[in-house]
Amino acid sequence: MGPLERVTARFLRNSIVLASISSGMIACVRNDSIAAPASAVAQPPPVFRDPFTLKVRIDRERYFEAKYENRVPYVADGDVYLFPGESFGLKVVTSNGEISSIEYVKDRSKADIELDFAQDPKNEGDPGMILTMTSHLGYDVGFSALMVRPGDGRIRKTSVLPLRAGLTHFEGWPDPIAQLVLRHLHVHKEPVAPKSK
User: Comparing C-alpha atoms, which of 64, 69, 70, 75 is closest to residue 177?
Assistant: First the structure.
């Protein structure tokens, strides 16, 4: 690991990385105020994307395009970073019934969770986004999510449902999204409804 990767990895421990849509730069938001479960197992070093150009359909005629010269991780400190058009997997490790480590897996067929984030290529007038998640785990996984819309640059919370064990789940948004971050992955335990008397 070179000096840049060491500095980036150290900074990522207390930050969430969101790529700036307007400048192609990486912006980080401090995580100090958002509690995440402590990891019992050391997180693997992040795998970074090569520089790339993001192209997102805004409507039938317009596209948003941004170049990312800085490297953005796929997974860092338990946060999963997705850009439109990406498909990859996650290896999930549990310890004491809790998720303790999440790792990027290039080959989705070897992953515990498969992810595919895209706009519908068949519907060129619809800028909406679809996140397809397939679980090969024996337990449900819950998480929270943040998103950045093209040209906006603002970090927004978005709702997502838990991923059920052994199932494929689809999340959809009517508007284009330039980047999606899945955070705080955890074993999802259904609340037990009180028994009626």
Answer: 64
- The larger pLDDT score, comparing residue 179 to residue 10, is at 179
Query: 3-class SS at 3?
Result: helix
pLDDT 10s digits, 143-174:
999 999 998 889 999 989 999 999 999 999 99
For residue 182, the cross-strand partners are 80, 145
What whole-number distance in Å separates Cα of residue 135 and Cα of residue 137? 5
Three-state DSSP at 23 gives coil
Closest CA to 131 of 142, 120, 121: 120
Instruction: Give the other-Cβ count within 10 Å of 105's Cβ.
Output: 21
> In this structure, are residues 47 and 73 in contact, taking their beta carbons and an 8 Å threshold?
yes
Give the Cα separation of 44 and 179 in Å (integer).
Answer: 22
User: Long-range contacts for 109-112 (Cβ within 8 Å, ≥24 apart)?
Assistant: 111/136, 112/136, 112/137
What is this structure's pTM? 0.76
The CA-based angle 53-60-52, given to 5 degrees, is 5
Q: Could you tell me how far CA 102 lies from the centroid of its own chain?
A: 11
Residue 44, strand partner residues: none
134 is written with which tokens? 């397939």
Q: Give helix then strand counts, H and E, for the chain.
A: 1, 14
Question: Shortest CA distance to 40 belongs to which of 100, 104, 124?
Answer: 100
